[in-house]
Specification:
287 residues, alpha/beta, Nuclear Transport Factor 2, Chain: A, 2,3-Dihydroxybiphenyl 1,2-Dioxygenase, domain 1, 2 domains, 7-stranded mixed sheet, 4-stranded mixed sheet, 5 helices
Amino acid sequence: MSTTGNEAAIEEIRAVIEDWAEALRQKDAERVLAHGTEDCLVFSLAPPLTASDGDGEGLEQWFSTWKGPIGYRLEEVDISASGDVAFATALAHLSGEKHDGEKASLWYRQTLGLKWTEKGWKIAHQHESVPFYMDGSFKAAVDLDPRSEVDWQSPSHPPMAGVIAYLGVQDANATAEFYGRAFGAKEVDRKYAEDGKRLIHCHLTINGGALMLNDPFPEFGYQWRPPEGFVLHLVVDDADFWWKRAVAAGAEVTMPLEIAFWGDYYGQLRDPFGITWAIVAPVKKGD
């Protein structure tokens, strides 16, 4: 922690910030608000663009979404004070488990503006922010770690098991959107080319597995070619559900869904982009 200005004021401000942080960890809304001015302005990570920290009800609602105490700590704290105004900057780490099972762990930038009042130093302004990736995705860079030596110019992902299909398609944006409707695909990541239109990379998950897409780039020797000679298998518990959803979204039936001679419940579909999919489910006893 570095300091600039009146040392006595710095120590008082440090104590205020530490107690404010502890109140956040304990989800003590009254104690949190006691450290702020009545008109404290908040630029938080969550919408809207501006808010007031004087709303105890909103703070209590946010606290209620967390299961147990909140993990909250500040690192690289720098405090400057002059007269009745002070600023503190830090890197904040927020972690914990939500009631819906989601586990949070993210770093972000925290700036506090304080002013001297008749009741001592109070927080008059809070500003939270994260960088965003400059790859056209505009995704918040919430996976950064100040202790990491990784080059964070683009997101990094842990190793993934198995063999992953990487498809070159004519319109990766449209394909990804269709796969969301037809196969419940969830988007993990996407990167746009310099033209801001074509995708150089799109990472989807379908049925727990990964699927990658990209647009053709003939100027770099990557022409589009019609897909042939492969089938994407979806082995699922409820083949009828997956089949009906895909057909409703616009997939063409090329082989009816029925019990095949080898014993599986099996059918094939062709999506609007020429990719063949197989819906497969084991036949249960009694079927």
